[in-house]
Amino acid sequence: MRLQLLYIAASLFALAAAQEKANPFTLPPGFMITAGEPTTITWNPTTQGTVSIRLRQGASSNLEEGTVIASNIDNTGRTTITLPEDTTRNSDYALQIVSDENPITDVNYSAQFVVESENTVEPISTPASSAAVTSATTAATSATTAATSETSATSDTSATSPTAASTTRKEFVTPM
């Protein structure tokens, strides 16, 4: 019983702490955006002035900088946004809302959500880029082989000719 009460109290505290952040989003569970289509987003406006909305992507603990999708909009708690059609389909997007008057302290994030899009992640290599990589690798291998051959020839000369070794050897003496 005590453990349950402690859990309930901790949950209420976490909920209250989340609400204390500036302009918390009020998006429904399962919220998603379809790229290229208008979508209404909502939040509880807790700051004065205007806000900007940024689309960010990545792990929730390490979001990329993202793209501004609405800037200097009145902080009414509601706006309609349209993501570019070329936004890549993925499930690791979040919205960031920033008070334009206090962009350092008055910042909040939505839960992560899915962006539906016909644009999917491009493959790591395409036939054209594979050919370029193969050519570059072949050129690098040839250069390495040539350098190794030249080093071998120099090493052979140094080993068989004491004169060659003495003309290329340098010694440095450190004064005491």
Estimate the helix proportion, in percent: 25-40%
Oligomer: single chain
Order of helices and strands: HEEEEEEEEEHH
Give unreliable regions as ranges: 9-18, 129-172
Q: Major sheet, described briefly?
A: 7 strands, mixed
Question: What is the rounded distance between the termini?
Answer: 80 Å
Number of strands: 9
Topology at a glance:
Layout (H helix, E strand, L loop, with lengths): L1 H19 L11 E3 L3 E5 L7 E10 L2 E2 L3 E8 L3 E5 L7 E10 L7 E3 L3 E4 L10 H34 L1 H7 L8
Parallel strand pairs: 1-9
Antiparallel strand pairs: 2-6, 3-4, 3-5, 3-7, 7-8, 7-9
What does this structure look like?
Helix 2 packs across helix 3. A hairpin with a 7-residue loop joins strand 7 (90-99) and strand 8 (107-109). Mean pLDDT is 75; it is low at 9-18 and 129-172. The chain has 176 residues and is an alpha+beta fold. The chain is built from three helices and nine strands; from the N terminus they run H-E-E-E-E-E-E-E-E-E-H-H. 34% of the residues lie in helices and 28% in strands.
Short description:
With 176 residues, the protein is α+β, with helices and mostly antiparallel strands.
Features of the shown structure:
9 strands, alpha+beta, globular, two-stranded antiparallel ribbon, 176 residues, 7-stranded mixed sheet
